[in-house]
Amino acid sequence: MLxxxxxxxxxxxxxxxxxxxxxxxxxxxxxxxLVRDLITPILGMMGGAPDFSALKIxxxxxxxxxxxxxxxxxxxxGIYFLIVLPFNRFAKKLAAAxxxxxxxxxxxxxxRDALVVKR
Length: 119
Description:
Layout: H1 2-10, H2 12-47, H3 63-96, H4 103-118
């Protein structure tokens, strides 16, 4: 019984998942700080700091839900514009900088194409 558990834990995908969760938790702190300490104060200076926590519809406190949705949208926009977009631009530049095929590779492609035509 313990041997099977040990094999399960030692699999690469379980360890990768554990590392991903830990890195994700650490990254969550970075994103929360980005929103709390940079983006929200800038938005507050532009239009005031909206707080919908007092908003109720009957006995349902919908204001906290609205606050959570707004915080999510701010976090998603911050991640996209400050992390994803620059990374995609960097990856595109990196892919464009790939070296051209060597002369040997060109010859091998010609040989492959000639063999395909013969068949």
